[in-house]
Amino acid sequence: MSAKVEKKRVAILISGRGSNMVSLIEAARAPDYPAEIVLVLSNRPDAAGLDRARAAGIPARAIDHKAFPDRAGFDAALQAELEGAGIELIVLAGFMRILTDAFVEAWAGRMINIHPSLLPLFKGTHTHERALEAGVRLHGCTVHYVVPELDAGPIVAQAAVPVLPGDDADTLSARVIVQEHRLYPAALALIAGGGAVLEGGRVRFTAQARDAGAAILSL
């Protein structure tokens, strides 16, 4: 008999359709995947991803940010839901709210995000348009820990795609998101399984996970 895999309890935060969320849910169905998606939260009641999560049998709730007078009030409601569900790791997947520094610091080392560029290039929004304007030959996506400074946390993993002649923002985005759907589940597995450890503001791969880490970086 194989040993039972200990699974970290994970919440996914979304604001829209949740395409990365779906890739994470699908990966987490594997018996040996070290994370369990137990909750999906959105700041938008009309987020299409909520119904997609419910269809997968995962509790999904909206906390409408417009119902709160400030960010701190919204974050407090978010924190209450997370604590109530016994969440150990937060995964941001197209979550379009800037969280307060206090919330981010409370989850330091336990919250990750995926950004559609090869950080530290093109922090913020409109990354594909900016990559094309800059004339880069490689673009891609980055999984990183969340820190108070936007898109500046320690990098867990990256995947690169070529920028092809004739690309526009839509074609480049489509190529990047294919890699996002591969990279995010792999990076979450590394973190939840203890293969990627945050030390001194940098991510270190443990010896048993080093080969897997190298494979992710070369996707």
What can you tell me about this protein's structure?
The chain is of the alpha/beta class. The chain has two domains: 1-106, Rossmann fold (3-Layer(aba) Sandwich), CATH 3.40.50.170; 113-218, Formyl transferase, N-terminal domain (Rossmann fold), CATH 3.40.50.170. The protein contains seven helices and nine strands. It has helices spanning 19-28, 48-55, 71-84, 101-106, 127-134, 169-192, 210-217; strands at 8-14, 35-42, 60-62, 89-92, 111-115, 138-145, 155-162, 196-199, 202-205. The strands form two sheets. The chain has a seven-stranded mixed beta sheet with strand order 3-2-1-4-5-6-7. It has a two-stranded antiparallel ribbon with strand order 8-9. Strand 1 (8-14), helix 1 (19-28) and strand 2 (35-42) form a beta-alpha-beta unit. Helix 1 packs parallel to helix 6. The chain is globular and about 50 Å long.
Give helix % range: 25-40%
Write the CATH fold name of the largest domain. Answer: Rossmann fold
Main β-sheet: number of strands, strand sense, barrel status?
7 strands, mixed
Mean pLDDT: 93
- Percent strand equals 15-25%
User: What gyration radius follows from the Cα positions, in whole Å?
Assistant: 17 Å
> What is the structural class?
alpha/beta
Spatial sequence of strands, sheet with the most strands: 3-2-1-4-5-6-7
Count the beta strands: 9
**Low-pLDDT regions:** none
| N-C termini distance | 33 Å
CATH architecture of the largest domain: 3-Layer(aba) Sandwich
Can you identify the CATH superfamily of the largest domain? Formyl transferase, N-terminal domain
GO molecular function, one term: phosphoribosylglycinamide formyltransferase activity
EC number: 2.1.2.2
Active site: 115 (proton donor)
Protein name: Phosphoribosylglycinamide formyltransferase
